[in-house]
Amino acid sequence: MKVLVVGGSGLIGGEISLYLQAKGHEVTIMARKPPSTPVLAELSFLQGDYVNDDCADGRLLGFDSLVFAAAADIRALPQDGSITPEDFYTKYNDEAVPRFFAAAKAAGINRAVYIGTFYPQVAPHRIGYCHYVTSRHNTDVAVRELNSETFRVCSLNAPFVLGHIPGLEIPHITALVHYVRGDLADLPLFAPVGGSNHISSYAIAQATANALVDGERGKAYLLGGDNLSWKDYLQMWCAAVGQPRELEVRTDDHPMLPNAIMFAGAGATINYEPQGVDVLKYQPQDLNALIAKVVAAVG
User: Fold this and answer.
1) Domains along the chain?
2) Could you report the per-residue pLDDT of 179-221, keeping only the tens digit for each?
3) Considering the entire predicted model, what is its pTM?
């Protein structure tokens, strides 16, 4: 297949790109700027800004498959007050993503996978109340509604994601390593209330490859891996840096896992069994081993 991976310079899209290439597919990364990570820079590159460019200009011709891993989240939200969260998510997700998928459909791409988030499925009560969850729900629905006999789309909705691509720095993960290691002495070391499901970017890549071939038209698959309390999760990081300890659980806003990113609600615990594993055939990775690899890379 000739696959276009939008957002292929990031962790999830990059992992998908590398996995598909290893499986023999012809992969092109689309992003605003070429990837600086050496292993990703070796892949074909197509410049594109799905929000501000007219992607119906012919640049999508010649591809038969699309993976979209670039929808906006809180990391891209301007913090200067120049745009409200509702307007930002509406522009970057609700409007721009379905418009891009429509352009892909018109260009003759016949199969597509949208990488979404688990919140609309595991916390549907937040739809209509949280701008981010509402936006990702609206986007997911709109994208899957573009299904037709010639354009097969499904979505893969992922929980918290952890992974490692050599040379690709993930700032919040680097900060987390320094935090549990005690390098940030002004920040108290504790665990927040609640917990979540976690998956590796490699497992998402496996699921994506199989979804392109066998994914059910119009289906939203809930991906998943390990259900962990935040205490257990952070203690895994403590052990990985060589400082195992029992963490106190507090209701305080956490410096690394703040309430601002807990879109199911502060203190929520989100445990579940994933859907469609028999179709998507992905294998959860050993999270302890993955965390150890990330810690070693941070140094």
Assistant:
1) 2-162+198-224 (3.40.50.720), 171-196+227-272+284-298 (no CATH)
2) 999 999 899 999 999 999 999 999 999 999 999 999 999 999 9
3) 0.97
